[in-house]
Amino acid sequence: MMLCCGVSRVGIRCVAFSPLGSSSYIELNMDQSLGKGVLSEPIIATIAASHQMTPAQVVLKWNLQRGVHAVIPKSSQLSRIIENSGSCSETFHLSEDEMAAISQLNKNIRFNDPGEFCKSMGGAIPIYN
Length: 129
Prior knowledge:
Blueprint: H1 2-8, E1 15-17, H2 23-27, H3 42-51, H4 55-65, E2 70-72, H5 78-84, H6 96-103, H7 114-117
Parallel strand pairs: 1-2
Helix pairs in contact: 3-4
């Protein structure tokens, strides 16, 4: 988050690409063998239930509320795309405690890193240090 705040001051916008993770990342063992993504975290389910929202809407709202300018979830299902747009609701807000609880889930795992998933394809181009 500090990176987003810092670069925003000079006009650069942060983007959350694939903010919900993906089961394919887990299948590729990019989750360091944890075997689950953020949507299956109990605190996400609890927060979602308390707001009558889905876990995906909670994670997307967390990204928006923490200052990410563009949140780009991926789905091939129109119903999920429509459902995800509910995270933009002006009536749905996460409390400071909920924001902090979600932030505590950080496991310092970077998904979608070509430096990792390209190894099985004969190359590796790390884009993160």
